[in-house]
Design brief:
- It comes from Streptomyces tendae.
- InterPro entries: Peptide/Ni-bd, SBP_5, SBP_5_dom.
- This is ABC transporter substrate-binding protein.
- With about 575 residues, the chain is α+β, with helices and mostly antiparallel strands.
- It has 14 helices and 19 strands.
- It has helices at about 130-140, 155, 195-200, 270-280, 300-305, 310, 335-345, 350-355, 390-400, 425-435, 445-455, 475-485, 505-515, 520-535, and strands spanning about 50-55, 85, 95-100, 105, 115, 180, 185-190, 230-235, 240-245, 265, 290, 315, 320-325, 360-365, 405-415, 440-445, 465-470, 540-545, 545-550.
- Helix 8 packs antiparallel against helix 10 (about 425-435) and helix 12 packs antiparallel against helix 13 (about 505-515).
- It starts with about 50 loop residues before the first strand and ends in a 25-residue tail after the last strand.
Length: about 575
């Protein structure tokens, strides 16, 4: 998944994102201000330098190694893909649209073969033509062990993908399941029906890479641009990136990226408080600055809210992301559904939301799927706890489960101060369950230990905090990794926290994956979410909300429901 406020690591517990925070019908800018204005003169114009102030370096700036939903933010300035996200505010931004291709793909009858035709006039930064063979090669190199890190779907979906080791070891013609009958046509043969292949084609692995320019692990130092900007400097493994215009990029072939600034200066490795201070002061180059990975915290947001000027420079966004309690039913007493239900009733979502920073930064959740149409959100609350928990109902269920005198359990959480799976949320859960007669002992783990522990079926606790973000705005990459029994990993990172392996659930996932009508698929995902929710394998807690400052000279702020954060491809700075 992509966690919008972290670089590119996959987290279930958790993303982007990472990068992070999420869900709901996204809005652009503070609730009542026009975020597109960004100053008195709201008309965006070309020119100037956009500065990006980030905490995390843009490491692994190679399209094969990036795990970025929709092509990422800064990466999508350099890397174009077959399809991309629609660069519009809110719900419209959750749609997939053509990028290098003329359409979002043409499936055969059962969605096991997808065909794309490239637009005419596509060129790299050196003026050479982009061909379908370049896209095939770009995908194939992502299978090389030394370029690992990208999304795993291609290995699972492409015929022959599971055994392919990339072009450096395979000196032959590469993957037979990717055909390039001519320079503008590319055909993909899949192991099984995948109606959401157009979403996958937004990942940076679909970026064209000219074979002659491939330098293996050193390619990231100067990847060949197919987008509106090219890399002219990459310092300290992505700590500072300087991008300038790719004069061979043509807006006629790219309806999505506006490319207003002449130059993009990405500066990373900064403390989050420093970033927000600089954006707040908005002095010198910082007046034309944004951040793609740093949110306002509760204390900072309180200060901003009281300042009319600063409040007008806050972008608000929602991303497909859910924070939740996870149960391992193989660990007692969580093997008893009534115990899991009791905890679901006992949770005080008001205190959890407050622990996450308050209602401006978190929205209470009773469904696993985020509350956005593209995910197929279907409202349900199987264990209604109200705003502050239903201790009486929880006690009743505990009595039925054989725990009339209450019970003691251990809640595992991260020690990270992330307002998601950290001590603040854990303490809120602990306090609420105490009212229901459940004594909760807290076990905090450092970040890496935490991830390793909860993602290993051998060490997975019975009761822990988790979170999950979407690889694209659909129920598929939300429900399948968490509830498809065939995705349980015995030796490696496992995300099916409830270790559910229900034949009927697996079959419904397969049936929905066959649908190329994404609206119809969304309704089915929502219905499946409601059905799975009855088993109380998780307790949804909240969907985070992004609040991010931008400089006073920044204009044309666009925040879609796909990413939940400001889209740098749309920004103007003068």
């Amino acid at each position: 998944m992509r966690h919008p406020s972290r670089r590119t690591r996959r987290v279930t517990a958790a993303l982007t994102v990472s990068l992070i925070v999420t869900a709901g019908a996204a809005a652009c800018g503070p609730e009542d201000n026009d975020a597109k204005a960004g100053g008195a003169d709201a008309e965006p114009r070309k020119g100037g330098t956009l500065t990006v102030l980030n905490s995390d370096p843009q490491q692994d700036f190679d399209p094969a190694r990036l795990y970025t939903s929709g092509g990422g933010n800064v990466p999508s300035l350099v890397f174009r893909t077959l399809t991309t996200r629609n660069r519009e505010d809110g719900a419209e931004g959750a749609e997939v649209v053509p990028d290098l291709a003329t359409d979002t793909g043409r499936p055969n009858k059962d969605a096991t073969v997808w065909t794309y035709t490239l637009k005419e006039g596509l060129a790299y930064e050196d003026g050479t033509k982009i061909t379908s063979a370049d896209i095939k090669y770009g995908i194939e190199r992502s299978f090389a062990a030394e370029l690992s890190g990208g999304a795993p779907y291609l290995r699972d979906w492409l015929v022959g993908g599971a055994d392919y080791q990339g072009p450096y070891k395979d000196k032959g013609k590469g993957l037979d399941s990717i055909e390039t009958p001519d320079e503008r046509t590319i055909v993909f043969h899949l192991n099984k029906p995948e109606g959401e292949f157009p979403y996958l084609a937004t990942q940076t692995q679909f970026t064209p890479v000219p074979k002659a320019a491939d330098k293996g692990t050193k390619y990231e130092e100067h990847p060949v641009s197919s987008g509106p900007y090219k890399v002219v400097e990459n310092q300290n493994d992505g700590e500072r990136l300087i991008l300038e215009r790719n004069e061979h990029w043509s807006a006629k072939t790219d309806e999505e990226r506006k490319a207003y600034p002449d130059r993009i200066d990405v500066r990373s490795g900064l403390d989050s408080s420093v970033i927000n201070q600089r954006l707040s002061a908005s002095q010198g180059p910082d007046a034309a600055a944004v951040t793609t990975d740093t949110n306002l915290g509760p204390a900072e947001l309180a200060k901003v809210t009281g300042d009319k000027d600063l409040a007008s420079r806050v972008g608000t966004g929602h991303f497909g992301y859910t924070n939740y309690i996870a149960f391992n039913p193989k660990v007692k007493p969580f093997d008893n559904p009534k115990v899991r239900q009791a905890i679901a009733y006992a949770v005080d979502r008001t205190s959890v939301v407050n622990a996450a920073g308050g209602s401006s930064l978190a929205e209470p959740a009773t469904t696993y799927l985020p509350n956005q149409k593209s995910f197929g959100h279907t409202a349900y609350d199987h264990f209604p706890a109200g705003a502050s928990g239903n201790a009486a109902k929880a006690k009743e269920l505990l009595k039925q489960a054989g725990y009339a005198n209450g019970l003691t359990v251990t809640l595992t959480h991260s020690n990270a101060k992330d307002f998601e799976t950290g001590p603040e949320i854990a303490t809120a859960v602990q306090d609420a369950l105490k009212k229901a007669g459940i004594t909760v002992k807290l076990e905090g783990l450092e970040d890496n230990d935490y991830s390793d522990t909860i993602q290993d079926v051998k060490s997975e606790p019975g009761f822990f905090l988790a979170h999950w973000g979407a690889d694209w705005p659909s129920g598929g990459p939300f429900l399948a990794p968490i509830f498809d029994g065939r995705q349980i990993v015995e030796d490696g990172a496992n995300f099916n926290t409830g270790q559910l392996n229900d034949k009927s659930v697996n079959e419904e996932i397969d049936a929905i994956n066959k649908l190329t009508d994404l609206d119809a698929a969304a309704k089915r995902w929502g219905a499946l979410d409601k059905r799975i929710g009855e088993q109380a394998l998780t307790v949804p807690l909240f969907h985070p909300v992004y609040k991010r400052l931008y400089g006073k000279d920044v204009k044309n702020v666009v925040i879609s429901d796909w990413t939940g954060v400001l889209d740098v491809s749309q920004v103007a700075v003068n």
